[in-house]
Specification:
Elements lengths: L11 H4 L1 H7 L7 H5 L5 E3 L15 E15 L6 E8 L4 E8 L2 H10 L5 E11 L2 E5 L2 E4 L7 H8 L3 E3 L8 H14 L11 H7 L4 H9 L4 H32 L12 H8 L6 H14 L6 E6 L5 H14 L3 E5 L3 H15 L16 E5 L5 H13 L2 E6 L13 E6 L7 H5 L10 E6 L5 H7 L4 E5 L9 E7 L3 H16 L3 E5 L33 H9 L9 E4 L5 H13 L4 E4 L12 E6 L7 H8 L9 E7 L6 H11 L3 H11 L2 H5 L19 H17 L7 H10 L2 H9 L1
Parallel strand pairs: 4-6, 9-14, 9-15, 10-12, 10-13, 11-12, 13-14, 16-21, 17-19, 17-20, 18-19, 20-21
Antiparallel strand pairs: 1-8, 2-3, 2-5, 3-4, 5-6, 5-7
Helix pairs in contact: 6-8, 8-9, 9-24, 9-25, 10-12, 11-12, 16-24, 21-22
The protein binds adenosine-5'-diphosphate and magnesium ion.
Length: about 750
């Protein structure tokens, strides 16, 4: 926030220098910062802390009742000592205060009268074998009250407990907040929530919310306050997203309406199967988007194998028919090469431009990767720049300055939902218009996350799989059960003998390695191993073992990981696809998109070290052909641990959206929102995406309504300011431009 109102004034003036200095390390500098430093929880005033749970050396904040407090002169050292005994009702704890003279101690004695309840903080120590606190900080419940009646009320109020520091106990924060609140009137605290929204949703006003959250009289007070503040967080974010969405919708793009009798029509007529109903619906949405003179911004979600690539290809053909080009971005070079192969296969003679076999209106699919030879690369670059290639496939390098397009009309981003806002903004053509954008992901994104993180995109979902898919069976194999693991390799052998292939996935490349990173530099989401667990299995080591494994005698074992030269990766993938290699030991480079229909077995070693969505993705690599798939998750995790439940959740269902919901429950918020790469989500203090789906949905509805009426938010200056405060500079600039 900017401005010079009382909210921005340095705290020193209101709370004093000592407190202001103690608050600074917590990042609290202005009154605004302090008011938005919400309590972490509320202590019940009558509830004593169980003194059994104290540990020596621990810094504690505990509630206890005073039993006695007496000052006495110390003969030996000539000072004075106040010894107080406090209790939780069953156990006692001694508090000691020393002073040169008894006078100072009288004040403590007076405050710590028997029967009073107080919160004490200090470090637990021992004296003659008994636990004690020396010079604890404390706050007597109801101490600030003017009279007996007021003290009773005070003593029954919920006690806010803040994230505090040893230098600054929670009640000093509490007192500072109250001091600040006392100095502010409604005019100093303009509400970012529009009056109408507040009334319709029955939410308390800002000043009431801040008092309720910091200085509640009842539980209902802080609950109503939290609800309103949570809504505010969701709402401000949703308004920012709605504004962005509206702004992008107004940017210019070249309209690419369908051309009857073009490549797309020819392609559709030649398809050996029927589109699924989902493919038809989503295809229609996309066709309409592309026909508009504004950039499409669409997220397409669909399980592995749901036919997203086909949907993308049809969109690309519509653009090619309309005279434009399409770029398909894959997360890795392996996937880019595979995409180019399968697009060419799907297109057949439609992709033969320049060859005698070509169909009349044929185009070209160019593959542009760093590993291609200089000659091939030059040719692909020329095809892209000259417009001969209607479709150019590559990694994100395609968006770099070295690659020129004659007329880039559509960018398709595959398996890369991390494609962030900044990257989206960077898509600009030389003439200032934007290409259309289709982002595809097979990682199911729970609705609330989609709304929060991708709220500025339109979303489509392919729910149904094409018919004739083979079922996948999943089993958990205990790592220490020799009989099971022996049987597992036996099963792999049987599949190979039946003409099938197997993946064996490990968490790392070599022993002593950190977990593998994929080509896009995304680290494997390895879960931290529990105490005393052995290091996870490594590709090179496992490949060696399998080479010599009696069950796999005569079977060709290949390895694939991110550290191989690109040409070697391509070679081993091609060998695996062709059946020259039957068992592929790999890291998660096979996680996304790799498509070998003959692969029927997926063995994941140390499965508990992978994230849920990764395991789901890995499993999706099998069961893509006519034969049923088998997924074996090897885990040494003990029954009942989180690690084990993750693995069992995967074995329990093949529904990606269900798993995504489980995942969201098991994970910390930051991890979930980490995918956003946006400053906006770090502004969430009370809102929890896993829990507050309803609030988010309501806020989104209201936000859209507000933006529809007042795009520039001219009637809502406070809301405008709140948005600016949650967005990082880059995004703020975007909003200013809009
Ligand atoms: P995704 O990219 O969503 O993982 P793909 O587009 O790779 O899925 O499709 C998986 C396989 O299913 C491909 O071999 C594709 O040709 C085939 N396929 C796609 N749509 C259909 C359909 N409607 N009917 C039958 N097979 C289909
Ligand atoms: Mg795909």
């Amino acid at each position: 926030m900017t401005g010079t109102g009382p909210l921005e004034a340095p705290l020193e003036r209101t709370v004093g220098r000592r407190t202001a200095q103690a608050l600074a390390p917590l990042g609290i500098v202005t009154a605004h910062d302090l008011l938005r430093h919400y309590p972490r929880r509320y202590a019940e005033p009558g509830r004593m802390t169980d003194l059994r749970d104290l540990t020596v050396g621990e810094h504690v904040a505990l509630m206890a009742r005073v039993r006695q407090a007496t000052v006495r002169q110390m003969r030996s050292r000539g000072g004075a000592l106040l010894e107080a005994v406090v209790t939780d009702g069953e156990r006692d704890l001694t508090l000691t205060f020393f002073a040169r003279r008894p006078g100072v101690l009288r004040t403590h004695e007076d405050r710590l009268r028997p029967g009073r309840v107080a919160m004490f903080t200090g470090t637990v120590g021992t004296y003659r074998g008994r636990l004690q606190l020396t010079h604890p900080d404390y706050q007597v419940v109801g101490q600030d009250a003017d009279d007996e009646a007021a003290a009773l009320v005070e003593a029954s109020r919920p006690i806010p407990v803040y994230r505090a520091s040893a230098a600054l106990p929670t009640w000093r924060i509490s007192r500072a907040v109250r001091t600040v609140l006392d100095t502010l009137g409604p005019d100093d605290l303009p509400d970012p929530l529009p009056e109408q929204v507040r009334r319709d949703r029955g939410l308390v006003g800002l000043i009431e919310a801040l008092s309720g959250v910091h200085a509640p009289y009842t539980d209902a007070d802080w609950q109503a306050a939290q609800h309103r503040l949570r809504f505010e967080e969701a709402f401000v974010l949703q308004v920012a997203l709605a504004r962005r969405r509206a702004a992008v919708a107004e940017l210019d793009a070249v309209a690419r309406p369908p051309v009857p009798g073009g490549l797309l029509d020819t392609f559709d007529a030649s398809l050996p199967f029927r589109l699924t109903p989902g493919q038809v619906d989503v295809g229609r949405e996309i066709a309409q988007d592309l026909a508009r003179p504004h950039p499409m911004q669409r997220l397409l979600q669909g399980e592995v194998g749901s036919g997203k690539t086909l949907v993308a290809l049809r969109a690309m053909l519509q653009v090619v028919d309309a005279g434009g080009q399409a770029a398909l971005l894959a997360p890795t070079e392996v996937l880019a090469a595979q995409h180019a192969r399968s697009l060419r296969r799907l297109l057949g003679t439609l992709a033969d431009d320049g060859f005698l076999t070509a169909a009349e209106a044929a185009t070209r699919v160019a593959l542009l990767t760093g590993s291609a030879g200089a000659g091939a690369r030059r040719e692909a670059l020329a095809d892209a720049a000259g417009g001969r290639a209607g479709i150019v496939v590559g990694t994100h390098a395609l968006l770099g300055p070295q690659v020129q397009f004659a007329d880039l009309g559509l960018v398709v981003v595959d398996e890369q939902h991390r494609f962030g806002v900044e990257q989206r903004d960077s898509l600009r053509r030389p003439d200032g218009t934007r290409p259309h954008l289709l982002v595809m992901t097979a990682t199911p994104i729970p609705r609330t996350v989609a709304m929060t993180v991708f709220g500025d995109l339109e979303t489509s979902v392919l729910r149904d799989l094409p018919p004739g898919r083979s079922p996948i069976t999943t089993h958990v194999v205990p790592a220490d059960n020799q009989a099971w693991t022996a049987r597992m390799w036996q099963r792999v052998r049987e599949e190979v003998d039946a003409g099938h292939r197997a993946y064996v996935v490990c968490p790392r490349i070599a022993p002593d390695d950190t977990p593998e990173e994929d080509d896009a530099g995304t680290p494997v989401e390895e879960e931290p191993p529990g105490p005393g667990t052995r290091p996870s299995r490594a590709v090179v080591e496992v490949a060696d073992e399998l080479q010599d494994h009696p069950a796999l005698a005569g079977v060709e074992v290949g390895v694939l990981h991110g550290r191989l030269a690109p040409a070697d990766k391509d070679r081993v993938m091609a060998q695996f696809a062709a059946g020259e290699v039957q068992v592929l030991v790999a890291t998660t480079v096979v996680e996304v998109g790799v498509d070998v229909p003959e692969a029927t077995v997926m063995v994941v070693l140390d499965a508990d070290r992978f994230g849920l969505s990764q395991l789901h993705q890995l499993r999706g690599r099998v069961g893509r052909g006519a034969a049923p798939g088998l997924c074996l998750l090897v885990s040494g995790a003990v029954d009942g641990t989180d690690a084990r439940s993750r693995v069992e959740a995967i074995a329990g269902t093949t529904d990606g959206f269900e798993l995504a919901a489980v995942d969201l429950d098991l994970r910390r918020e930051g991890d979930v929102l980490g995918v956003a790469q946006s400053g906006a989500t770090s502004s969430l203090r009370l809102l929890r995406v896993a829990r507050d789906g309803k609030v988010i949905a309501e806020a989104r509805r209201d936000a859209r309504a507000v933006i529809e009426q007042d795009r520039e938010l001219t009637g809502h200056p406070e809301l405008r300011r709140a948005i600016a405060a949650v967005l990082d500079p880059g995004r703020e600039e975007f909003l200013e431009r809009a």
